[in-house]
Design a protein that fits this description.
This protein is 24% helix and 14% strand. The protein has four helices and seven strands, in the order E-E-E-H-E-H-E-H-E-E-H. Strand 6 and strand 7 form a beta hairpin. 37% of the residues are buried. It catalyses: D-alanyl-D-alanine + H2O = 2 D-alanine.
């Protein structure tokens, strides 16, 4: 398991048996352009440990995790904020995001055939339909969100009520905000 001087752990197979779909390294994100120069996923050591627990819990149900984002350098947080400064879905970079502390992960569940479970909206759908507990989605979509929520909370994660895909450590502000250079990730 590779770790950086900033206390971030590289999240990738085989150490972490997940599917990586790092959207901010592609144009398939809310900005329509890549944010990251290099596709990589990192978490701080506490979050990496909780992710290991979530992977194990999902595996017991023949499910896997598909990761969309983890550590988000402060430069990336500013790029997203400058594109869409909506505090309902993005943390104001002046206050700092749990992502920029290596303390948050964006993800979904994947079945044994490799299909994403239907959560009712796409990742980064900045709409009330993306809220946890939303009732304007089908019962099957509600069950899939509840399954993800159950796995993640049983593994020790907190959730953000406006985004079914976002999970974070409790009290993430105990970790410092990190730029790409401070983290040593070479993502930007």
């Amino acid at each position: 398991m590779a770790s950086l001087a900033a206390g971030l752990v590289a999240i990738a197979p085989p150490d972490f048996p997940v599917l990586l779909d790092l959207r901010y390294a592609t144009a398939d994100n809310l900005t329509g352009a890549p944010i990251y120069r290099r596709a990589a996923c990192y978490l701080n050591t506490e979050a990496a440990g909780l992710l290991t627990r979530a992977i194990a819990l999902a595996a017991q149900m023949d499910l896997r995790l598909r990761l969309f984002d983890g550590f988000r350098p402060t430069e990336a947080a500013w790029a997203l904020w400058n594109h869409n400064p909506d505090p309902n879905f993005l943390a104001d970079p002046r206050k700092g995001s749990p992502h920029s502390r290596g303390a948050a992960i964006d993800l979904t569940l994947v079945d044994a055939a490799g299909n994403d479970l239907d959560m009712g909206t796409a990742f980064d759908a900045f709409t009330p339909l993306a809220f946890h507990g939303g009732l304007d989605i089908t019962p099957a979509q509600q069950r899939n969100r509840a399954l993800l929520l159950g796995i993640m909370t049983a593994a020790g994660w907190d959730f953000y009520r406006n985004e079914w895909w976002h999970y974070q450590l409790f009290q993430p502000r105990r970790y410092p905000l990190l730029s790409d250079a401070e983290a040593g990730t070479s993502m930007m």
